[in-house]
């Protein structure tokens, strides 16, 4: 035992709310205190929270168990029982069972105990997985518990691959099969296959099903294996297993079909002893079916084949054939085969056959003695029965010794040798008593063995379930993480797509906006060109009317002079006709020349004055060409033309501020209202092109270049006479 000293720290159940505690207490009182249940618990190191192994746990006067490698224990108990948790490594702990809730014991080791445990943990880590499995392989045939414990240690190593776990569970299945714990073998073979599928393990599982009398499961698995790609030896095993299972279910015809297929295969492989064994099984199937002739034929063939080789398989074939001869009272043939089997057995496997095997030497000698006695050859029978007894005593086979001594006493009785009969009978009774006592011990040992093996297996299953649960949690966490990543990726893709679509829409909208602006700009340019093209004919029309008036009055000199000045003006107008803006200085020159022409025509109607502020930088301001002409023309033609006395036209160019210039066109004519009244009917029908065009030009230019031009028209005098037009021009 390891030297460890533990100090009891806490033995508690998770604290519950007061209301819940009261409710549970009331329920506990209402239950029968004699109800037995399985109490579950664990013993843990309080510092590392590692499980403490091999701790004794018992109920006073009741059940007993111990903790496993996982520190867990399960024990039968009832409310009010005293639970004792003890070990040489720490002080004994006493606990009164209060309810069915799981309990936990936490212990604190001393420093030297911790150091020792850490050293042992390091040593255990150095022990490889293969070392544990090799140790299990070497010990399990003589000590099942030790073999299972070594496999459990191997499975407790963290980070085992699926293949390694499968190998470990397969070995567990082999151990349980050897010790005839077939239900446990089935469980472990299934776990092995679950970790890593294997045809060899599936075949072992099918055998375990058969040995556990689960014949239908065995047949189903064997038939499923038939459809797989098998080696010749695996196919032989599967077909023979099917034959055995069908015999067990009474389907002899199908079993014989499978046996014959096996016999053909092993014969082709030149495996004589196996062919003899299979022939024996075919004979058994015919015999159980009641077909004696076919049974005898196959037994004879098996006998011939078994005589060709000396192997364990041929020995089994001989003993099976001998059993058939015994059933049919062919005692000489039986005796001959059994003697041959004993001779062969001494060569192929003298000491490796267990007592419960049917081919042991003591069993064969007993059956020879039985056959001789059936022929009334008592002396020879006694010789072989004594051989059987001696061999059984040497191998401690009380079953055969009991049967042989009983049969020996009966022979002495039949011979009439009363003294030897009494002596043999007394020896028989002693062996029976010894056998009975040993049977009780074996039953007790078998019970303890089954209990220990089951507990070990339960711990292994619990560890495997915990591992699978942890793996499931890891898989769920991993899957959740992957789902989160996928969701984030989808969200990023969606957001990116939305951003891209939004960007495309914005680009499209911007492109459409720019296209619209360009189109609008083009339309404005076209409109300006159209308006400018309309301004020039309008102006020309009015000028030509003036020339026409000169010609009508036979004033050719004046007409020529007017045309000369008009051509100069027209050249300047045409030069600027394609420009949206020209310097204010150019516009001043144009308006001076135009005003001069109008005054030349109507010199008796008005005088004019054009003033330019000296502080005004006429080259810094830009103005649309011929912008002032319509206003000047309007002042002359509609203001002062209808005035009886001579009027006055004044045009001023001044600077309002650093950024704005003011152009004022004022006249002292009849005014806008009076002018409308004085228009003839024909003039009223005609629409004023000049003023309408100028308003459109200003609106378009302001839209294209910003609000750079504004116009204000007002009356000068309170009686409505006189008109003033102010144009505000801003720098570009």
From TrEMBL:
Q: Which InterPro entries match?
A: Bact_2-comp_sensor_kinase, CarboxyPept-like_regulatory, HATPase_C_sf, Sig_transdc_His_kin_internal, TPR-like_helical_dom_sf, TPR_rpt
Where do the TM regions start and end?
Answer: 493-513
What GO cellular-component annotations does this UniProt entry give?
membrane
The UniProt entry annotates TPR repeats at 166-199
Q: Which residues form the signal peptide?
A: 1-22
According to UniProt, the name of this protein is Histidine kinase
The record's keywords, sorted A to Z, are: Kinase, Membrane, Signal, TPR repeat, Transferase, Transmembrane, Transmembrane helix
* UniProt-listed Pfam families: His_kinase, TPR_16, TPR_8
What Gene Ontology molecular-function terms does this entry list?
A: phosphorelay sensor kinase activity
Q: Enumerate the Gene3D superfamilies for this protein.
A: Histidine kinase-like ATPase, C-terminal domain (3.30.565.10), Tetratricopeptide repeat domain (1.25.40.10)
Q: Which residues form the Signal transduction histidine kinase internal region domain?
A: 528-606
- Entry annotated with the keyword Transferase: yes
């Amino acid at each position: 035992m390891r030297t460890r000293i533990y100090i009891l720290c806490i033995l508690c159940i998770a604290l519950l709310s007061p209301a819940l505690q009261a409710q549970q207490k009331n329920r506990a009182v209402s239950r029968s205190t004699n109800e037995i249940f399985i109490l579950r618990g664990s013993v843990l190191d309080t510092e590392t929270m590692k499980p403490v192994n091999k701790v004794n746990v018992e109920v006073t006067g009741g059940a007993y168990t111990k903790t496993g490698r996982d520190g867990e224990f399960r024990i039968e108990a009832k409310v009010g029982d005293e639970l004792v948790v003890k070990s040489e490594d720490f002080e004994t702990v006493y606990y009164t069972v209060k309810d069915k809730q799981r309990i936990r014991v936490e212990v604190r080791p001393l420093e030297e105990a911790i150091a020792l445990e850490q050293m042992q943990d390091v040593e255990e880590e150095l022990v490889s997985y293969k070392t544990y499995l090799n140790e299990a392989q070497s010990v399990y045939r003589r000590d099942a518990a030790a073999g299972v414990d070594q496999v459990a240690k191997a499975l407790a190593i963290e980070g085992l691959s699926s293949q390694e776990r499968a190998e470990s569970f397969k070995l567990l299945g082999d151990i349980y099969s050897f010790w005839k714990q077939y239900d446990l073998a089935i469980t472990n073979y299934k776990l092995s296959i679950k970790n890593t599928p294997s045809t060899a393990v599936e075949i072992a599982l099918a055998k375990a099903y058969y040995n556990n009398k689960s014949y239908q499961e065995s047949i189903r698995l064997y038939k499923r294996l038939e459809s797989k790609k098998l080696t010749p030896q695996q196919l032989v095993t599967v077909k023979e297993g099917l034959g055995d299972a069908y015999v067990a279910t009474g389907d002899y015809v199908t079993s014989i079909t499978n046996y014959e297929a096996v016999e053909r295969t092993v014969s082709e492989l030149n495996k004589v002893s196996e062919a003899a064994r299979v022939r024996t099984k075919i004979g058994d199937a015919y015999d159980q079916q009641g077909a004696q002739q076919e049974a005898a034929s196959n037994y004879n063939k098996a006998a011939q084949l078994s005589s060709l080789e000396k192997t364990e398989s041929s020995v089994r074939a001989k003993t099976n054939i001998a059993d058939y001869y015994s059933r049919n009272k062919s005692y000489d043939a039986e005796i001959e085969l059994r003697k041959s089997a004993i001779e062969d057995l001494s060569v192929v496997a003298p000491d490796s056959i267990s007592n419960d095997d049917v081919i042991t030497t003591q069993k064969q000698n007993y059956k020879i003695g039985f056959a001789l006695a059936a022929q009334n050859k008592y002396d020879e029978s006694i010789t072989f029965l004594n051989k059987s007894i001696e061999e059984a005593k040497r191998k401690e086979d009380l079953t055969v010794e009991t049967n042989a001594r009983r049969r020996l006493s009966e022979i002495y009785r039949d011979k009439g040798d009363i003294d030897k009969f009494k002596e043999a009978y007394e020896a028989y009774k002693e062996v029976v008593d010894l056998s009975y006592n040993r049977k009780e011990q074996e039953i007790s040992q078998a019970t303890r063995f089954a209990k220990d093996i089951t507990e070990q297996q339960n711990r292994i299953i619990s560890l495997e379930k915990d591992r699978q649960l942890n793996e499931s949690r890891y898989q769920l966490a991993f899957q959740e993480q992957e789902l989160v990543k996928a969701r984030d990726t989808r969200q990023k893709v969606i957001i990116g797509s939305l951003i891209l679509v939004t960007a495309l829409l914005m680009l499209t909208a911007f492109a459409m906006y720019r296209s619209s602006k360009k189109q609008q700009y083009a339309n404005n340019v076209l409109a300006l060109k159209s308006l400018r093209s309309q301004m020039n004919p309008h102006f020309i029309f009015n000028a030509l009317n003036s020339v026409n008036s000169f010609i009508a009055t036979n004033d050719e000199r004046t007409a020529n002079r007017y045309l000369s000045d008009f051509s100069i003006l027209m050249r300047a107008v045409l030069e600027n006709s394609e420009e949206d803006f020209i310097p204010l200085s150019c516009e001043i020159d144009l308006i001076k020349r135009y005003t001069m022409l109008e005054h030349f025509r109507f010199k008796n109607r008005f005088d004019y004055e054009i003033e330019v502020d000296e502080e005004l930088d006429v080259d810094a301001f830009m103005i649309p060409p011929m912008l002032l002409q319509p206003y000047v023309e309007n002042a002359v033609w509609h203001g002062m033309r209808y005035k009886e006395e001579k009027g006055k036209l004044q045009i001023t160019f001044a600077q309002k501020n650093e950024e704005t210039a003011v152009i004022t066109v004022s006249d002292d004519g009849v005014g806008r209202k009076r002018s409308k009244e004085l228009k003839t009917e024909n003039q009223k029908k005609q629409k004023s092109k000049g003023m309408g065009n100028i308003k459109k030009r200003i609106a378009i230019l302001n839209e294209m270049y910003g609000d750079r031009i504004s116009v204000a028209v007002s009356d000068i005098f309170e009686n409505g006479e006189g008109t003033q037009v102010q144009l505000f021009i801003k720098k570009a």
